Amino acid sequence: KFVSFFFLESLPSSIYQEFMLNLCNQEGIDLRIVIKDMPPIAIQNRAKERLATIEQEQTEVQERGGMRSRMKDQEYEEVDTFAEQLVQGTEKPFMMQFKVTISDSNLKELERKTKIFTDNVRNFGFEFNLGVYRHHELIKEAIPAGEMSERYAHLLQSSNANYLLPFNFQQIKHNHGVFYGYNYYDLSPVIYNLFSEDSFSMNVMGIM
Q1: Residue closest to 79 by CA, chosen among 62, 68, 93
Q2: Are 75 and 114 in contact (CB under 8 A)?
Q3: pLDDT in tens, 142-177
Q4: Rounded distance between C-alpha atoms, residue 31 and residue 22, angstroms
Q5: Is the pTM of this model over 0.85?
């Protein structure tokens, strides 16, 4: 079998739910997402440092007789807004690692699937890098061990991270299922039959 590994390198300024819906509909793709929550106070301190750096850069440009950069001002406003949302508790910070595996028994077919994938993500403003570094390091990064690697980790706020999760909220009540517990949001019972779907895999989401 031929396999290609891709890692998320950069994200667009705006993330839309259609990205994940489109990506999940492509055949031959395996998505691996690792999420780790971050302490808000640490991110707030980093935001303050970034705000101070941007303001200093803008001041130095003006002192040399130049014009303030609109892009820097926009970045300042976005960072300041995010920091305020963290203080108010309307947003939470997460580190996210996004990996994609594309496989096929035919090399030509793998190349076709890879081109569809790269064209698709580029249309949404995402940039993925093909894993081409040393073999043992690539395997360590690619296996679904659930570990967070800083090499391709991205800081996201909860509203944006939500659009990169391929899950929909719905009540789960199968006729011949097993009781797993109660839904956190509406306290409805979760009764699930593992063998009723096309795939025998499942995810259990919990809140500590």
Answers
A1: 93
A2: no
A3: 555 555 666 678 888 887 777 776 655 556 777 778
A4: 13
A5: no
DSSP 93-149: EEEEEEEEEEEESSHHHHHHHHHHHHHHHHHTT-EEEE--S-HHHHHHHHS---PPP
Tokens of 37: 């929550």
Strand bridging mode 93-104 / 2-10? antiparallel
Contacts (Cβ under 8 Å, ≥6 apart) of 158: 91, 92, 93, 94
Beta bridge partners of 94: 37, 156
User: Where is 82: in which H helix or E strand?
Assistant: helix 70-88
Structure-block tokens of residue 98:
């996004």
CB-based burial of residue 185 (10 Å sphere; 0-12 exposed, 13-18 middle, 19+ buried)? exposed
